[in-house]
Every structure is written in structure tokens, then in C-alpha cells.
Amino acid sequence: MRTVAMKSVALEFTRTGWTTTFQDLGRRDTERRGVPTGGAADQHSALVANLLAGNPRGATLIENLGGELAFVPDTDVLLAVTGASARVTIGGAPVGSWSPLVVPAGQEVRVRAEVGRGTRTYLAVNGTLAAKTLLGSAAPDARMGFGQLVARGSRVLLETEFRGFQRRFFEPPLFRLPVPVLRFDEGPWLVDVVASHGVHAIPGIREVIEEAEYVVTPRSNHVGLRLDGPVLHPDTDAEIVSHGVPVGALQIPHADELIVLGRYRSLTAGYPIVGVASRASLPLLGQAGPGQRLRFRWTDRDSAIRRLARCEAEVSALEHAVAEAFAAVGFMAPLPHH
Fold first, then answer.
1. Which residues touch 259 (CB under 8 Å, ≥6 apart)?
2. Residue 171: what pLDDT?
3. Are residues 3 and 157 in contact, defined by beta-carbon separation less than 8 angstroms?
4. What's the chain's average pLDDT?
5. Which tens digit of pLDDT belongs to each residue from 182-229?
6. Mean pLDDT over residues 287-297, rounded?
7. Of the given ranges (127-136, 245-254, 266-275), which has the lowest mean pLDDT?
8. N or C: which end of the chain has fewer CB within 10 A?
9. pLDDT value for 195
10. Rounded to an integer, what distance in angstroms lies between the CA atom of residue 192 and that of residue 123?
11. What distance in Å separates the CA atoms of residue 193 and residue 199, rounded to the nearest whole number?
């Protein structure tokens, strides 16, 4: 291992997407104060990007929604791009996503997501991005006036120890790592749902939801996905007492639509909650854009927990592999946090 002084880097953004923001995994212990956790819509892709760039899981990074992202670093940097399937180039040459990449000073990086294969890409750069924070997080929250937008022409500063690897003969991809890449089906994406008990029962709703296909509408955002498809409403006009709602809750409002609540949802609601998307399915929902078709499959809690445990084991395996690979070429990656 070696100890290297920090250096300052500037990233000049020549293009940004429809919405490009600073992002991280969200706020901790703020929901009891009425503030949503927020954070990256696709948490899996965000934390994997950070690990591949040699950062802690929750480090600040860039989330890009739609369009093309492009920037030029003024010195060599180590980075990774994950999330939606995308074409990534460095100085015009195609390179792989979901892999550590070294970008020479002055070379433009371009990232464009493929249509229909996710909507958000994540850019992590080794080091610490200079971003404002609110309640301990760089995650934006427009309702609190904390936009965190990165615009075309923005000059984003970075503090990093990266000065290249001791061994120079690597070509992208730099390493063979056990990367748990997020997969996108060609047809409707399948989402696991755990039944919600004790909130409000609607007879027949499970059968309706499981047999139907839903389409994400343009009114969707970080607060929730609004889906066009069949729903059933309660057979009574009795008012539902406001209750807490988790991320991923399937909610049926008065309108004929199904809503899957996201990380910026309100913390309480008075609409029926008929199920909750499994935590392992949330990254896929975070990538669903307008026009995306979804199907839902009911599962039990034990199965959902086992699937989540498998996902976490894959991430932990990557974390250890990255640390070993970077150490082998003379660059120290952060030690795993448990």
C-alpha cells in the first residue's frame, strides 16, 4: 500500500442529460423528522459504481437521467459508469460500462443510455466530489429547494489520491471482476411484490395485478411511478386513516392508476396500499421510464429476504475483489465496511 497526497481535479461538463444531479444513497435517520430518505433511484447501480471507482458505497456521484452526458477531466482520473445500458466512449473510443476506467487528462468521456434499457446512468469518480449537502447527504430534494443540478458548462471539482497504476499495460476493461450487472429483459420487466397486510384489503386485487401488464406514464418521477393498467377500488367510501408508507409500496389513489412509491414519496398516505415491491426489485423500478412495461409477481417475505441476501452477497464479493485488485497494482481501495 502507498500513501499519496490528495490532488484537485476539475471535470468540465460539455453535455448533460434531461436531469443531471449530484447524488448518493440518501439521508439517514431523517424520516422521523418528516424528511424522506431520498437518494439514487437505482441504489444498486449507484453503490456498484462507487465500488468500481474505489470509493465507499455511499460516496457522492453523478446521476444522469436521459440524453447524453459528457465531460473532460483536466488530469488523469479513475471512474466507473453503471446503471442503464449505455454507449460509453473515451476520446471517441468505445469502452465498457460496469468496469473501472482510467481517463487521461483532456480526453472527453461520453455516456448515452440505450433507448428502452433503463433511464438513469451513474458516474462515480475516485475521490470526493465537491458537492453541497443537506442533512448529511448530497441527494437533491426539490421540495426543500435543494436542486443539486449539474448543468452544461458546470465545472465540478474533485479531490483524489489517484495518480495512475504502477502497472501501465492494462487496457479497458482493467480487471476481471465479479460485477453484479443490472439486467434488463427485452419484454415486460418482472417485479416481485410482497403482500401488504392490515392496511386495506381490496377483494380480487392480487389477481388483477398479477394477471395484468402495466405501462409507466410520463407523470412518473422520483416520488413514484404512475402506471396505466387495471385497478380495483375499495367497495366502501369509508375514510382510510393516514398511515406510514414504505419505499416500493403499491398504492391505489382515487384515479384509475397504480402508483409504486419511490424514495421521495410522502411518508404517510390515506390511500389503500395493496403490496410492497421487494427491495431486490427496487433498482429495476428506479430504471423504469415512460413507456416501460411492467408485470408483478407476488412472493412471500422469506423468499424476498433470501433474494435480497443473495444480492448483498454479490455486492460484498465485488467489494473484496476490487480491494484486492487495486492493491495488486499499487492503488489502495477503501477497506470494506460492515
1. 224, 225, 226, 227, 250, 251, 252, 253
2. 56
3. no
4. 90
5. 999 889 999 999 987 654 678 899 999 999 999 999 999 889 999 999
6. 96
7. 266-275
8. C
9. 86
10. 28
11. 15
Question: Does the pLDDT at position 168 exceed 60?
Answer: no
Give 235-250 as a DSSP string: SS-PPPPPEE--TTEE
Distance between CA atoms of residues 31 and 38, nearest Å = 10
Strands (E) in 257-333, as ranges, are: 258-261, 268-269, 273-277, 293-299
Tell me, what's the pLDDT at 254?
A: 86
Residue 239, all three cell numbers: 375514510
| DSSP string over 123-137 | EEESSEE----BTTB
Q: d(Cα 304, Cα 322) in Å, to the nearest integer?
A: 27
Domains of the chain, CATH where assigned: 7-184+311-328 (no CATH), 189-299 (2.40.100.10)
Residue 173: how many CB atoms within 10 A of its CB? 15
Question: What number of residues does the chain have?
Answer: 338
Q: Are 217 and 229 in contact (CB under 8 A)?
A: no
Residue that has been written with the C-alpha cell 447524488 in this structure: 23
- Per-residue confidence band for 269, with pLDDT thresholds at 50, 70 and 90: confident
Could you tell me the three cell numbers for 179?
Answer: 460485477
Element (H, E) at 181: none
